[in-house]
């Protein structure tokens, strides 16, 4: 068991997310940076989707109440066991009674604490992930607080023999304050003027403070609309469309000065002009970008989006076989 | 007889196909979206992960590692064409009653709180704004207009349990419409009733939102607690294709219903009917009257 001494800013139970309920408005949720999350599970020899703790910016303080093996991945953070620093991206043995302290991140946003056998909470609608907006899943549908007792799985057979295993440097993600996000144009991008489309693609956008697992907000340029009347039923503002179900990663323009990019806790439908959709391989980068950091949007084809997806998958598979071998 | 518009397909990143039946809202487009997505769900195609009808469109989420996008697109186009026959669109639906306290103090308070994000800053409340934009001088007339027609559930999404309602049987001119907020509110009260474009929604829980708030529903539309008999087997009140009927209630009745909900004794008024789109389009007013009889 993990006994929570201090929950930090927002520590949530997350796995690889929810399926099958999107048509009822239930977003997938799950680890915001899937790549870092998977790397933690791969390090421990866990199934790749085992639930872990997702830490946002300020870490928790946890008393470990069962000897097990952990791995910490994602945004770089100072991690200590009983006051002594321990490495990230490496499997580490912790003893009953150890106190684990995670401090603030200087780069990136999300850090993962993975544990052998995974975090054990009941499945809600088929997943252990937390969707805080509807208080659904995870640990009682909310972030962890002091006094919470979080059940962890039985350490997997053989895991203690592999303590000290590290992720090789070339597999580690980079955390930058200036990123490029690839997206596929479409949906209602025809509602932007040529200048608006150019400004969207050629400008640097700044991540806003109101960004979170639901959506990222950006400002910095003007994405001007066409001067046409919105269709019947949309509402007569230039940014209004008849409401649609949004894809995860959708980039909408509620007004010419603001972009909203939907992440894995997305509000799954709405009626704002949507310029296109972020490719799945780059959603992790979005979730790791900090307020005030710079983002450029790069339009790619559907084929390029698939290629990026497969490249990322091949990387995970090769790491998995490397660590097994 | 009526004809259905032709669908335009588009990609959303690497995992989604977006199918736009029409850019404007039409009842026909929604019936078609329901028919196509119902058929697709029945076929249980491996690699298709989410099937979501929306107001005048639908989206499909798929795994491009299991199913080729070119094949899937061709397959969807085929179903889209077969489901363009109006007689294919008949279905069994439920009529559900939703009691609403219009122009209540809580939604007035939220109107004030987020006024600087709205389209107009001078109106006292969102309710008053929507009334004025639609040419109503009296509160009672507006409430009558919003609650007299039955509404079709044309889409679900936003947050779990949110259902878009579109008024049936009206001409475009009769439908209450309003622009959304210019920048979404960061909060909305749970069970608030909002209007955006030609649609009404009830916010299932507190959430961000961009619809103009006009009242409070007395009953939940999403409930994980399973305390209500009608929501024992599901968290979600709505199903696409349902028909909802708003009933105005005053503060006293609102409070009575809220108490019944809290105690777990409230029963939703629900009636099951067979809905024929052909009969509906032949005589919309007459058919709705017959459908809503005794409700």
Automatic annotation (TrEMBL), chain A:
Domain Carboxyltransferase: 23-315
Annotated keywords: ATP-binding, Hydrolase, Nucleotide-binding
Record lineage: Bacteria, Bacillati, Bacillota, Bacilli, Bacillales
Pfam families: CT_A_B
Protein known as: Biotin-dependent carboxyltransferase
Signal sequence bounds: none
Organism superkingdom: Bacteria
NCBIfam families: urea_amlyse_rel
InterPro entries linked: CT_A_B, Cyclophilin-like_dom_sf, PxpC
Transmembrane segments: none
Automatic annotation (TrEMBL), chain B:
Keyword Nucleotide-binding listed: yes
Domain Carboxyltransferase per the UniProt entry, residue ranges: 7-238
Short name of one Pfam family: CT_C_D
Gene3D superfamilies, sorted: 3.30.1360.40, Cyclophilin-like
Domain of life: Bacteria
Keyword rRNA-binding: no
Keywords for the protein's UniProt record, in alphabetical order: ATP-binding, Hydrolase, Nucleotide-binding
Name of this chain's protein: Carboxyltransferase domain-containing protein
Species per Swiss-Prot/TrEMBL record: Brevibacillus choshinensis
């Amino acid at each position: 068991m993990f006994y929570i001494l201090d929950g930090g800013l927002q520590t949530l139970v997350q796995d690889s997310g929810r399926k099958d309920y999107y048509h009822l408005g239930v977003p997938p949720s799950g680890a915001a940076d899937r790549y870092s999350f998977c790397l933690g599970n791969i390090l421990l020899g866990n199934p790749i989707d085992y639930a872990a703790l997702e830490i946002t910016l300020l870490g928790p303080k946890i008393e470990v109440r069962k000897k097990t093996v952990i791995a910490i991945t994602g945004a770089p953070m100072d991690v200590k066991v009983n006051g002594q620093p321990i490495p990230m991206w490496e499997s580490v043995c912790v003893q009953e009674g150890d106190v684990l302290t995670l401090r603030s991140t200087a780069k990136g946003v999300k850090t993962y604490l993975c544990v052998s056998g995974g975090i054990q909470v009941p499945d809600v609608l088929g997943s252990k992930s937390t969707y805080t907006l509807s208080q659904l899943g995870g640990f009682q549908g909310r972030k962890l607080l002091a006094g919470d007792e979080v059940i962890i799985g039985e350490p997997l057979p053989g895991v203690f023999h592999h303590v000290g295993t590290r992720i090789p440097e070339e597999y580690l993600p980079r955390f930058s304050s200036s990123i490029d996000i690839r997206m596929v144009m479409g949906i209602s991008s025809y509602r932007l003027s040529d200048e608006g489309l150019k400004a969207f693609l050629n400008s640097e956008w700044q991540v806003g403070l109101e960004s979170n697992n639901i959506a990222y907000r950006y400002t910095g340029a003007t994405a001007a609309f066409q001067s046409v009347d919105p269709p019947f039923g949309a509402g007569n503002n230039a940014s209004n469309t008849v409401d649609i179900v949004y894809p995860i990663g959708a980039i909408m323009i509620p007004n010419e000065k603001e972009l909203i990019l939907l992440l894995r806790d997305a509000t799954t439908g709405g009626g704002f002009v949507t310029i296109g959709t972020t490719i799945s391989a780059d959603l992790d980068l979005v979730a790791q970008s900090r307020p005030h950091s710079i983002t450029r949007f790069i339009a790619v084809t559907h084929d390029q989006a698939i290629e990026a997806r497969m490249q990322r998958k091949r990387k995970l598979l090769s790491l998995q076989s490397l660590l097994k071998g | 007889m009526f004809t259905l518009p032709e669908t335009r397909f588009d990609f959303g990143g690497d995992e989604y196909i977006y199918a736009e039946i029409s850019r404007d809202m039409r009842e026909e487009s929604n019936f078609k979206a329901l028919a196509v997505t119902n058929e697709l769900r029945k076929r249980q195609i491996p690699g298709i992960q989410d099937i979501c009808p929306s107001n005048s469109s639908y989206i499909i989420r798929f795994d491009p590692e299991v199913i080729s996008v070119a094949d899937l697109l061709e397959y969807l186009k085929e179903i889209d064409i077969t489901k363009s026959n109006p007689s294919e669109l008949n279905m069994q639906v439920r009529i559900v009653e939703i009691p609403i306290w219009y122009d209540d103090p809580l939604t007035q308070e939220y109107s004030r709180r987020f006024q600087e994000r709205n389209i107009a800053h001078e109106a006292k409340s969102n309710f008053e704004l929507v009334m004025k934009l639609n040419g109503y001088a009296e509160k009672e007339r507006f409430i009558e207009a919003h609650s007299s027609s039955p509404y079709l559930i044309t889409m679900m999404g936003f947050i779990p349990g949110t259902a878009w309602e579109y008024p049936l049987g009206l001409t475009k001119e009769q439908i209450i419409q309003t622009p959304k907020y210019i920048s979404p509110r960061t909060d909305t009260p749970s069970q608030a009733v909002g209007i955006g474009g030609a649609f009404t929604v009830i916010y299932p829980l507190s959430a961000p939102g961009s619809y103009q708030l006009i009242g409070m529903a007395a009953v939940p539309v999403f409930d994980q607690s399973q305390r209500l008999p009608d929501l024992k087997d599901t968290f979600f009140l709505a199903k696409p294709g349902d028909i909802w009927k708003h009933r105005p209630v005053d503060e006293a009745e609102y409070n009575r219903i809220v108490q019944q909900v809290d105690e777990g004794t409230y029963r939703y008024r629900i009636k099951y009917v067979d809905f024929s789109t052909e009969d509906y389009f032949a005589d919309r007013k007459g058919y709705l009257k017959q459908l809503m009889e005794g409700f």
